[in-house]
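Q&A FORM
Asked by: J.P.
Topic: structure of Aminotransferase V

PROVIDED:
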Amino acid sequence: MSDLRGAFEVPPGGPYLLAHSVGALPRAARAGLETAVLAPWSGKGGDAWGDWLGAIDGFRDALAGLLGGTAADYCPQPNLSAGLFRLLSALPPEGERREILASDQSFASIGFALKGLEALGFRLRLLTVDPTAVETWAEAIGPQTAAVVAMHVHSNSSAVGPIAEIAALAREAGAIAIVDVAQSAGVLPLNLPTLGVDGAIGSCVKWLCGGPGAGWLWVSPTLCARAKPIEIGWFSHVDPFEFDIRDFRYAPDARRFWGGTPSVAPYALAAAAIGVIAGVGVEAVRAHNRALIARVSERTNGRWFDPDRSGFGGTICIAAEGSNPSLTAIGAKFDRRGDQLRLSFHVYNTADEADRVAEALARV
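REPLIED BY: S.T.
REPLY: Here is the structure written out as C-alpha cells.
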C-alpha cells in the first residue's frame, strides 16, 4: 500500500498514526472541493445551488455504495450527536417504555446528547460493565427499554461490540437499536441493513479521511416511515422549494431529518474522500492495517498487541502512563484516551514506519 501514500497529503514529520482521530487529507478531496463548491460559486453565484445540492446527493450515493442500503436511507448531519438527537426525538417515549440504554464507554458526546433527551421524557441508563459481552445487554434490555445505542468499535479500547446480537435483543423487547460506527466505517467492512439495527450514526473525519463536518444518519425505511422529527426546516420538507409556510409535509425518506439550509463544503470534501477509500476497498484497508500491526507485534515479541486477537477495530490501544518520549523522538503523531495510548495505521502508512514504531515501543 506504500504506493498509495502519494494520494494523501500526509502531515510532515514522523509516522502519522491518527486515523482514529483525523485521517490524512486525500488529494482528491481538495480537487473535489474546487469542482463541486468553489467553481460553481465563482461562476454562478446564487445559481450554484443546483451544483451544490448535486454534490450532497453525491455524498449520499457514496455512503450507500460503501456502507449499504440506498442513498434515500442517508441524511447529512453536522455531527453524530445531532443525528442521534434528531432520530430519537422523532420517536417520543410511550407509556413506561422510556429508558435509553448505552455504555459508559461510549464517546462522551453521545452520552451528552442522550442526557438531553430526558427533557422529552426519556431516561438515560449507562451500563458500567463490559459492553462487548452480549450478556451485558441481555440483562439490561427489557420492557422499559425504548432504545439501545451501542458503539461498533469503542474509541478507548478498539474493542468491537456484538451489534447484530444487541439489535436482535432490542427487537425482541420491542425497542429500537442504533449503532455508532464512527470508529469502524472505512476500516471494517460494513453493510448497515444486514446488521439488524434501526439506525446508524457516523462521521467522515476518521478512517474515511473526509474531514470535519460531514456527519450522517442512516435510518431503516421501516423506522423512517414512522419517525416525526421535531427539529425540522425547509430541507426536511417533501419539496423544499415550495415555500408555503402553512403547509409542511415530511420528506418521504431520511431527508426528513435534514433541517434547515445545509452546509455543502464538508460533504463535497467527504464524497471525494469516500471515493478514494472505496477505490482502495475497505477489505484492503483492513488488511494493510493488520499487516502493519503484525509487524509491530512481531518486532516487539507480542509485548504490546496481539494482531491475531479477534474483535478489535483498527487502533492499537496500549495501557501506558507517562509521556512516551521514544515515540515522540521519532516524530510520531499519536494521542491518548485516559490511560490508553492510541496508534492507528492507514493505507498511507508504510512498513518502514511500522518498524520505526516497533523500535520506539521496544524502548518503552
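FOLLOW-UP: The first strand starts at residue 8 and ends at 9.
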